[in-house]
Design a protein that fits this description.
Two copies of one chain form a homodimer. With 379 residues, chain A is α/β, with parallel strands linked by helices. Chain A folds into two domains: 249 residues, Rossmann fold (3-Layer(aba) Sandwich), CATH 3.40.50; 95 residues, Orthogonal Bundle (Tyrosyl-Transfer RNA Synthetase), CATH 1.10.240.10. Chain A is built from 18 helices and nine strands. In chain A, α8 crosses α10 and α13 crosses α17. Chain A is globular, with a radius of gyration of 21 Å. The first copy, chain A, starts with 6 loop residues before the first strand and ends with a helix. Chains A and B meet through α6, α8, α9 and α10 of A and α6, α8, α9 and α10 of B.
């Protein structure tokens, strides 16, 4: 792994991330055993991403469980910056969000920030491009299996009449000094991206505005997005809304050494539209936690902690905890070699892609039911 | 008059304004006799606000006349910040814009910046309030007599789906440093008002986007708004649009000593909804260019240059140049006393208000034809 100092901002995740330190840095709370117990009682079962600490940090999750226990419904909100094809890494929090939607029968707002991706990082894409990726990514979101009629995909420039007015209300309470401190903007930043945090705050309050009373909101997302909603939380009381609660995931590591997977380095990530051959090639060529030689690996064992192959299983592809534990034991013991492990993962990924791609095709038929327009909010 | 250094920004006009110096400061061009001749030939007649130098400065007006002479249509764009009742001062450029629309058969975009007035100056109004004033001001705009079907009143939060996307395209090319330099923002400014200059640029390009080819645009407005469109002019070529041309007016002085008329100081301005009695009271109590005593005034004469009563006649209420000249001569010669002059103006203002208020009532019937929504642009 790289020795660089890890950087975690909404735009960049590099280096080996110390998640405990991140909890301290960001000022969030770890998900305790007590909280896991409460989720299990409420939901009936714990998602593997909770059992395995993929979702590891939160803000006000206890409050969300309190309101749920009092019989009050909460809403969900997550998002995606549509700047390229969907990777399997993007789907980690989506799959978890689907679990929450299913178990808590929750309405979901899914923001697609076509404006952001046109504004940042410079020079940004054209809006035409980000709108293209909005529809492409939306197919993957729908294919994740979210509920029809309870899931609104909100693309910023398609719902701007609804979002912009509320963003103005948010923006009124946010100074340039504040966004500079939170996001590290410099004066050379464009005025669109400076305003954008106000747009990203809005979906946390949208359901409350729509129904005319306060609805608690839980945001499942990778922890790098926390700064946006920390800002939203500061503003919420000033507008008379509840502070949105959050539950934060770790990053699925990229297939190459170091960093999270990135759509801009095709070999670092498996795209949801990859064919079986391409996906297998990427897995076969992946960085692992293995040793330089077979002999050494038999003797010293591999390191599953830093191995994307193992992490893919842990995050997504091995539902059975006992089997995962066994894989880990065999890796550490030098019994399981990387080639064999890659072969096994490639099979699971191929099966996942086949069924995802089928659902993705079906999603084309219903996309416009999910991808709402302003009219949904003004009726 | 006050001796303070005059300040002219989009938010503030105070002190005695030296308009020649303003042309230098802002880097605009004076309207020459040659240009006036060209306008007269093209329009058939010169509006009194041109004959009398109320519109005195411009950017690229010659180019607009060139394209007109080649038979190409240009569009018009002006605006209003809906933060209170309309004053007669607000109507100065509107009345001139109507002249341009009539003579050049031009389509007009009239922006109502309900977002801006909610954002600035702090603490700003609620959007509910600025939307209320949007409709109130819109009645006065319609009552000015703009053409049905050729006049679009575009309120920012009502047309945000159309405006926000284009504003993002503009914003991409505008850094915080730039708006800081142009508008003097400090880091304590909110991120909404920092983004707002991008929203104000958009209507200059809206017709071009709507029809899918470049349409020249002329912006008639008071000169304090020049910085916004100077910025729009810088960005235009980067987006493939023509730079909007501008024609700038002076400010109708307030009825009290110093400064422009302001809706926030009711006695300084006549509202379009004032009754005859209220309007007359404001005129009778007005500051004038008169002397301390009748005897002194008979001897030394008045000063029409600094007198709002005379300026009201010059800007709006005396269509006959010879009569205006005669009034000036009689004022300067000590023949016309302020009381008599006020009486005469009050009569003209009362007649104007009566007929404006009738048209304002009729405007209620057709308001929604003028005040467009996003649907107009997406059909």
């Amino acid at each position: 792994m790289t020795e660089e100092r890890p950087i975690v901002t909404p735009w960049q995740v590099t280096g080996r991330v110390d998640y405990e330190k991140l909890i301290e840095q960001f000022g969030t709370e770890p998900i305790t055993g007590e909280l896991l117990g409460r989720i299990e009682r409420a939901a009936g079962e714990l998602h593997l991403q909770l059992r395995r600490g993929v979702f590891f940090s939160h803000r006000d999750l206890g409050w969300i469980l309190d309101v749920h226990e009092r019989g009050v419904k909460f809403g969900l909100y997550t998002g995606r910056g549509p700047s390229g094809p969907t990777t399997i890494g993007h789907m980690v929090p989506w799959i978890f969000t689907k679990y929450l939607q299913d178990k808590f029968d929750a309405k979901l707002y899914f923001q697609l920030t076509d404006d952001e991706k046109s504004l940042w990082p410079p020079p940004g894409m054209s809006l035409e491009e980000t709108r293209f990726w909005t529809r492409e990514n939306a197919l993957d979101i729908v294919a994740t299996g979210f509920k029809r009629g309870k899931t609104l995909l909100v693309a910023d420039t398609l719902c701007a009449r609804t979002l912009y007015g509320m963003a103005v209300e948010v923006a009124k309470h946010v100074t340039y000094s504040t966004v500079k401190a939170i996001f590290g903007f410099e004066d050379s930043a464009n005025i669109g991206i400076i305003f954008f945090p106000a747009m990203q705050a809005v979906p946390a309050f949208l359901e409350s505005r729509l129904v005319g009373k306060n609805v608690p909101c839980l945001i499942p997302a990778a922890i790098d997005q926390d700064p946006y909603w920390r800002m939203a939380r500061d503003i919420a009381p000033k507008l008379g809304f509840f502070k949105p609660a959050q539950i934060h995931s770790k990053f699925l590591p990229g297939l190459l050494a170091g960093g999270k997977m990135s759509a801009s380095i095709p070999e670092s990530a498996i795209f949801t539209t990859d064919g079986e051959v391409a996906a297998k090639r990427k897995i076969v060529n992946a960085f692992t936690g293995g040793r330089a030689t077979v002999e050494e690996q038999r003797r010293l064992g591999g390191d599953p902690e830093i191995c994307p192959i193992f992490q893919y299983e842990l995050f997504l592809f091995e539902p059975d905890d006992a089997k995962l534990e066994d894989t880990k034991r065999r890796c550490l013991g030098g019994e399981l070699l990387c080639g064999e492990h890659k072969e096994a993962l490639a099979g699971k990924v191929a099966a996942f892609l086949r069924s995802h791609q089928e659902r993705r095709e079906e999603a084309k038929e219903v996309l416009d039911e999910f991808l709402v327009k302003d009219e949904y909010f003004s009726k």
